[in-house]
Design a protein that fits this description.
The radius of gyration is 18 Å and the shape is globular. Helices cover about 65% and strands about 10% of the residues. It is mainly α. It has a single domain, classed as Winged helix-like DNA-binding domain superfamily/Winged helix DNA-binding domain (Arc Repressor Mutant, subunit A), CATH 1.10.10. Helix 3 packs across helix 6. The protein has helices at about 5-25, 25-30, 35-45, 55-60, 65-80, 100-120, 125-149, and strands at about 80-85, 90-100.
């Protein structure tokens, strides 16, 4: 008899495996300053280089609280990964810009991400991948609705 499976537990277990894999990757050992969400933030800023990115964009994109993002950005600035620059149209806002060091890290991370995606999607059809993302998006939406209540 199969034990009952729980979505939350399975997502947590999968997340733990992926985090371990990431921590043990050669890239992560080389680029320890871009671990965890820092790497995703670098990628987000790089992917949106055609527009100004601010702290609130990071908060919204990754569903992270303001205080957490503020601490993360301060640390990234100390590590020489980002620069906060004033914008002429609103003195309160500081746009986030990647340093050359962050761009180098980003390029290495893209190569690593492509390799990982290839491995993770082995044996999956395009339709299965599409269904996976659709289901995952709905689960995340359900969880966000629950948090907002």
């Amino acid at each position: 008899m199969d034990k009952e499976k729980y979505i939350e537990l399975e997502i947590s277990k999968t997340s733990n495996v992926l985090k371990r894999k990431c921590k043990n990757s050669g890239l992560n050992r080389k680029i320890d300053e871009a671990t965890g969400k820092n790497g995703w933030i670098i990628g987000f800023i790089a992917d949106n280089q055609d527009r100004d990115i601010f702290q609130r964009d990071i908060e919204e994109m990754f569903s992270i609280r303001r205080s957490t993002v503020s601490s993360m950005l301060q640390l990234m600035e100390k590590k020489g990964l980002i620069i906060r620059e004033s914008v002429g149209y609103d003195a309160r806002l500081k746009k986030l810009t990647l340093t050359p060091r962050a761009w180098e890290i980003h390029n290495q991370m893209i190569e690593n991400l492509k390799e990982n995606e290839k491995k993770l999607s082995t044996g999956l059809s395009d339709e299965e991948i599409s269904v996976f993302f659709s289901v995952l998006e709905r689960i995340r939406s359900n969880a966000e609705e629950e948090v907002e209540k």
